[in-house]
């Protein structure tokens, strides 16, 4: 069973994603900001992370930087999922090493497709 | 008193002056020698022995007639602030060293004019110096009870004159450059001015209050004397005209007397010193005149019927009462007055004689072939010998022409002669057209009329030979009677001579100047004199000259007179001042003028011009050319000024634009950030709604409970979206000023309770205790709906921040004089001090907040701030004593409509 970590501070959005990925047989972990995500990553090694950008305390960009520094997480795919849809933001996200950048509002099917594609399913 | 004792006293006194002069010279530029008081006091060199003794004589014989000589200066002195400062400026810039230099420079460096002025001054001043020596000699004999000896080497006063001549020639010529300041002499003169005044006041007080019983007593006794009424009657119109002319005469004298020019212009260190002199000098004159009348009439009372010289009352009275000490003091006062005049006048005159007569006429050619040190020695020696011989000459004039006239009348004759300089002098300051030829002829004719109407009759009066010239006129022509020229018979000799000589002098000066144009150099200097303020800093620019000249030639001449070192230094200054390359070979107009100035102090303006002209090749410039150049330079100055002004304006505007631009950039950035945040905030609920809807749409197997949950999400996110839009619009209305605020008077506590009411459910859920305190009747003018909005917002925030257990919110209302203050504080974790201000920004998200997601929009406090500011109040955040957050706002009790 593939592990997915969803990082977002909007509970209703998280709820939709959580429901969908559970239904698609993922083991789902949830963090409500970057700091919580990094805490979880100390013990868990998910296959893929869905990362929001604008969050309190530690934002998505910063979280990704930490992830990239952690050798254990090198295999781990990262998808940004953000309402920030300016080209400069997208470029920045991809330059930091994200595997994909999806903008909000999103189609859940598309997110699932993207995740599957990255995981080679 | 024994004459040896008096001579010793005099020697000591002179020694003291030597010491003071020496001290002041050596100590240099210290506070004591360079201050406005020394300057003002040195101007009192105006009060000579003539004032000291002569006024008393006049007052004793003809009442108030001594007054015009003081009234004239007092009337004209306020004008010093403008006129004298202008003269000082011109003289400083051009290195002028005497009045002859001043006049000859203005009329195109005219050698001839300088010489004429010098000769006129010699005629006027030499008898005047003689007069001072006479007063010293006569009073010396009175004090020592001796008679003047007919064999001059038996007469002790001869030696006094000799000592004075030596003193003056040593201290008057310390510098080759005659435009240098003589601090020593000036300080000594100032000291003498103090002494003569003090001694004069002493004798005045002595006569008035010791000999007599005050002013009333003197008047009472004097009024019983014969002729009292006659002597003290002012007379009709002729007398008034006499007074008028005497006032005019002394007005001129204060500017034109060489000694006054010397102390007021040449020795002036700072223009501002004039400001002090303007009040101090008239005050000095006033003090000097207080006791003239009492002493004069006291003397008339005491010596009624005796044949004594009323000029010497101030000595005779203390002597009469056997008060020898006071007699000597008075004598020393008169001596001071005399020697100040002698020293300063002889310095001025000898500078003029050397720089305007001897050097330009003859000596210059010979000087040129000498070495620098020899030249300097020669120039200084000329002046030394000049001073010495002037004083000795004056002494001989006194001895051989006896000078039977009173001090007062000889003084006035000197004034009339010097007044001949008035047209060309004042013309130099105020009239562009005044020309050299006009000045020369006016001066000569005026002087000749003086000789005819004043000097000749006086000389004849002294020798009392043939008086038919006076009584019948020249060749027996009635109209040419010297004292009633052209039938003018109601003026006294002095006003009479002044009237005719100045009238012709002035008319000829004007007529000739208007009829014959001067040369370009005169016109050039006219411009520089009149507009001195314009040229004060870069005055060499105003000099017009065309031709070829080599710097090396000019430098050679300068080295001859100034020495190698000074020349080099001066050239460096010139190069820096005008930004000229030091390797420049050719000299321009500025360098010519600069060099002439350097030489002027040494050898006078005329000689300086001749010297420089001898090593350069000047081309003739026509007058129209000069006028054109002057016009252009004037225009240039105006254009430059305008350009500077415009460029300053542009600079200001550009600075303002930059500022505006910067603030626009900040606003633009803020707008971008705001839009970014708004779109993000709007997209978030839409995202949630879209995701939930998609699931509900696609997934039919969804359990009932979850399905309801997703629908609930859609509802709450839609509400959130709506609220957000409302708030954004709200905020936008406030920011653009379109939000209306309806003021009415309300009770604050009631409004707060209204605001809390709807939140009660939330408060109960979290088990928070809310406490409202304050005077329930406290009122203010505000829009209640809006303030409810603010309070709701602040309390909602407080609820959010309260801990889960034992939450406490305190809302306090205070009466702060003109405003009502409301504080909402909680017992949560407080706000980071960094955020005290930023929390009122739009979409602020604290970096420190410990809850997961703000329930609000991020616009609440921003809107609160807008509302409070629309009420002209303030809102701010702090932490309270327990560490919880405390948000406060104020509202004025009365809103000004």
From TrEMBL, chain A:
* Residue ranges constituting the Response regulatory domain according to the UniProt record: 3-119
Source taxonomy: Bacteria, Pseudomonadati, Bacteroidota, Flavobacteriia, Flavobacteriales
Mind telling me which PROSITE patterns this protein's record contains?
A: RESPONSE_REGULATORY
Please state what the protein is called. Answer: Response regulator
A Pfam short name: Response_reg
Keywords annotated in UniProt: Phosphoprotein
Q: Which SMART domains match?
A: REC
Establish whether keyword Phosphoprotein is in the entry: yes
**Which residues are recorded with the post-translational modification 4-aspartylphosphate?**
52
InterPro entries (alphabetical): Bact_response_regulator (IPR050595), CheY-like_superfamily (IPR011006), Sig_transdc_resp-reg_receiver (IPR001789)
* Native source species: Flavobacterium sedimenticola
Q: Which domain of life is it from?
A: Bacteria
From TrEMBL, chain B:
Q: Where are the transmembrane segments?
A: 6-24, 36-53, 65-84, 112-131, 151-173, 185-212, 240-257, 277-296, 325-349, 385-401, 407-431, 438-460, 497-516
Q: What is its main location?
A: membrane
Where in the numbering of this chain does the Histidine kinase domain appear? 677-895
Which chemical reaction does it catalyze?
ATP + protein L-histidine = ADP + protein N-phospho-L-histidine
Which InterPro entries does this UniProt record tie to the protein? HATPase_C_sf (IPR036890), HATPase_dom (IPR003594), His_kinase_dom (IPR005467), HisK_dim/P_dom (IPR003661), HisK_dim/P_sf (IPR036097), Na/Glc_symporter_sf (IPR038377), Na/solute_symporter (IPR001734), Na/solute_symporter_CS (IPR018212)
Enzyme Commission number(s) from the entry = 2.7.13.3
- Family per record: Belongs to the sodium:solute symporter (SSF) (TC 2.A.21) family.
According to UniProt, the name of this protein is histidine kinase
Tell me what organism the protein belongs to: Flavobacterium sedimenticola
């Amino acid at each position: 069973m593939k592990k997915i970590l969803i990082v977002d501070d909007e509970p209703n959005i998280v709820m939709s994603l959580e429901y969908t990925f559970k239904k698609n047989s993922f083991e789902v972990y949830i963090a409500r900001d970057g700091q919580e995500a990094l805490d979880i990553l100390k013990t868990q090694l998910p296959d893929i992370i869905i990362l929001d950008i604008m969050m309190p305390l530690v934002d998505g960009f910063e979280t990704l930087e930490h992830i990239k520094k952690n050798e254990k997480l090198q295999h781990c795919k990262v998808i940004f999922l953000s309402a920030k849809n300016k080209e400069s933001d997208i470029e920045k996200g991809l330059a930091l090493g994200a595997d994909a950048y999806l903008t909000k509002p999103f189609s859940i099917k598309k997110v699932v497709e993207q995740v599957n594609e990255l995981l080679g399913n | 008193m024994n004459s040896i004792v008096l001579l010793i006293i005099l020697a000591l006194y002179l020694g003291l002056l030597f010491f003071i002069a020496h001290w002041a010279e050596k100590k240099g530029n210290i506070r004591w020698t360079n201050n406005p008081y020394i300057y003002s006091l040195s101007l009192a060199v105006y009060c000579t022995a003539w004032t000291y003794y002569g006024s008393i004589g006049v007052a004793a014989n003809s009442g108030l007639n001594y007054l015009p000589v003081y009234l004239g200066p007092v009337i004209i002195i306020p004008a010093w602030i403008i006129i004298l400062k202008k003269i000082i400026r011109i003289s400083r810039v051009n290195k002028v060293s005497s009045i002859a230099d001043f006049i000859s420079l203005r009329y195109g460096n005219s050698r001839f004019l300088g010489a004429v002025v010098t000769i006129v001054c010699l005629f006027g001043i030499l008898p005047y110096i003689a007069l001072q020596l006479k007063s010293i000699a006569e009073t010396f004999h009175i004090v020592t009870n001796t008679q003047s000896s007919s064999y001059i080497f038996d007469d002790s006063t001869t030696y006094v004159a000799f000592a004075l001549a030596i003193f003056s020639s040593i201290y008057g010529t310390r510098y080759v450059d005659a435009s240098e300041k003589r601090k020593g002499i000036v300080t000594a003169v100032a000291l003498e001015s103090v002494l003569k005044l003090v001694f004069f006041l002493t004798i005045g007080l002595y006569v008035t209050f010791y000999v007599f019983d005050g002013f009333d007593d003197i008047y009472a006794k004097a009024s019983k004397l014969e002729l009292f009424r006659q002597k003290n009657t002012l007379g009709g119109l002729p007398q008034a005209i006499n007074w008028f002319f005497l006032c005019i005469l002394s007005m001129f004298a204060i500017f034109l007397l060489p000694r006054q020019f010397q102390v007021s212009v040449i020795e002036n260190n700072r223009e501002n010193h004039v400001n002090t002199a303007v009040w101090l000098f008239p005050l000095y004159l006033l003090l000097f005149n207080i006791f003239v009348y009492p002493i004069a009439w006291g003397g008339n009372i005491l010596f009624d019927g005796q044949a004594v010289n009323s000029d010497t009352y101030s000595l005779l009275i203390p002597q009469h009462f056997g008060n020898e000490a006071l007699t000597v003091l008075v004598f020393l006062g008169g001596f001071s007055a005399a020697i100040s005049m002698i020293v300063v006048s002889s310095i001025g005159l000898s500078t003029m004689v050397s720089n305007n007569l001897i050097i330009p006429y003859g000596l210059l050619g010979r000087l040129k072939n000498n070495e620098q040190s020899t030249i300097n020695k020669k120039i200084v020696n000329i002046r030394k010998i000049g001073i010495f011989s002037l004083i000795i000459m004056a002494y001989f004039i006194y001895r051989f022409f006896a000078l039977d006239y009173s001090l007062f009348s000889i003084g006035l004759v000197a004034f009339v002669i010097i007044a001949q300089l008035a047209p060309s002098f004042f013309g130099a300051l105020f009239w562009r057209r005044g020309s050299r030829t006009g000045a020369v002829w006016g001066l000569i004719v005026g002087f000749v009329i003086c000789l005819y109407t004043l000097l000749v009759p006086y000389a004849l009066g002294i020798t009392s030979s043939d008086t038919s010239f006076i009584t019948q006129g020249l060749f027996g022509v009635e109209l040419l009677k010297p004292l009633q020229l052209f039938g003018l018979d109601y003026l006294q000799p002095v006003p009479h001579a002044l009237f005719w000589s100045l009238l012709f002098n002035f008319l000829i000066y004007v007529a000739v100047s208007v009829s014959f144009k001067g040369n370009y150099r005169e016109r050039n200097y006219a411009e520089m004199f009149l507009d001195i303020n314009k040229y004060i800093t870069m005055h060499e620019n105003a000099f017009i000259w065309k031709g070829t000249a080599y710097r090396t030639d000019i430098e050679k001449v300068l080295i001859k007179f100034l020495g190698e070192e000074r020349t080099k230094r001066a050239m460096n200054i010139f190069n820096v001042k005008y930004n000229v390359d030091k390797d420049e070979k050719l000299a321009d107009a500025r360098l010519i003028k600069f060099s002439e100035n350097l030489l002027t102090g040494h050898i006078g303006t005329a000689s300086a011009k001749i010297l420089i002209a001898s090593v350069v090749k000047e081309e003739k410039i026509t007058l129209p050319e000069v006028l054109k150049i002057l016009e252009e330079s004037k225009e240039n100055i105006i254009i430059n000024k305008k350009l500077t002004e415009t460029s300053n304006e542009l600079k200001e505007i550009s600075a303002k634009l930059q500022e505006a631009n910067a603030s626009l950039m900040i606003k633009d950035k803020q707008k971008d950030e705001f839009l970014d945040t708004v779109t993000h905030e709007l997209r978030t609920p839409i995202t949630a709604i879209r995701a939930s809807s998609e699931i509900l749409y696609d997934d039919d197997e969804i359990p009932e409970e979850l399905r309801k949950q997703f629908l609930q999400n859609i509802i709450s996110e839609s509400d959130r979206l709506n609220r957000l839009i409302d708030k954004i619009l709200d905020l936008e209305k406030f920011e653009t000023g379109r939000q209306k605020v309806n003021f009415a008077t309300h009770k604050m506590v009631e409004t707060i309770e209204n605001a809390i009411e709807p939140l009660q459910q939330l408060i109960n859920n979290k088990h928070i205790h809310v406490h409202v305190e304050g005077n329930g009747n406290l009122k203010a003018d505000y829009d209640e709906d809006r303030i409810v909005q603010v309070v709701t917002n602040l309390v909602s925030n407080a609820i959010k921040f309260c801990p889960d257990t034992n939450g406490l919110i305190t809302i306090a209302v205070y009466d702060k004089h003109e405003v009502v203050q409301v504080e909402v504080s909680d017992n949560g974790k407080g706000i980071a001090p960094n955020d005290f201000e930023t929390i009122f920004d739009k979409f602020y998200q604290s970096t420190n907040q410990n809850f997961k997601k703000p329930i609000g929009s991020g616009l609440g406090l921003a809107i609160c701030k807008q509302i409070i500011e629309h009420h002209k109040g303030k809102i701010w955040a702090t932490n309270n004593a327990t560490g919880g957050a405390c948000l406060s706002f104020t509202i004025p009790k009365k809103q000004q409509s």
